[in-house]
Amino acid sequence: MTCDDMLDALAKADWTANIKVVHTEAAKKFRGIWQVIRDHEKVEEDLQWREEREQRAAVKEAAKAVKTVMTLAAKCIADAQKAAKRELVLARKAEEAAAKKAAVEAKCSAAAAKQADAEEKKHVAHERKIAAQAAGESIKNHFSENHNLVNDNTLKPLQPSNICPRPRPQPILH
Q: Each residue of 19-51: pLDDT tens digit?
């Protein structure tokens, strides 16, 4: 072997021996660094997992809140529809009651008008009767004065002791 080759072999052997020492010393440091890196990666994974879990929980919470709001909105809409339907029914009933009341009032006013007409007719008939009686009495008085007719109101009722024929009034001829 030549001198250069020997020097290269010696340098290589020296380098190999020294690099083993460097590797053994560096391995301890690298293990510590790798452990720190693994711990850091573990912490990062844990944080990422927690963030994902919190996001999923937030999404679930939001979905639950939306569902609750939608349920309440549907319930409010249903209640409003029921109230509107009730008010519509009440309005219809009020209209029917008003129509019935108007019909009853019309019947009552018709009956009152009919009764007033009947009373008016009765009153007119009574006045005619009074007028006829007054006219009849004046005619009766006229005829009884002129013809000497007996007034039947002054006669006593017939009794068995005083039965006797009496003069009959003469018929009125016109």
A: 888 888 888 888 888 999 999 999 999 999 999
* Six-digit token string for 171: 């018929």
What average pLDDT score do residues 49-56 get?
A: 96
Task: Give domain limits for the chain.
Answer: 8-109
* pTM passes above 0.70: no
Whether 149 has a pLDDT exceeding 70, the answer reads no
CA dihedral 29, 31, 32, 35 (to 10 degrees): 160
Q: Are 147 and 168 in contact (CB under 8 A)?
A: no
Residues 143 and 149: beta-carbon distance below 8 Å: yes
Q: Please say whether the beta carbons of 149 and 169 come within 8 A.
A: yes
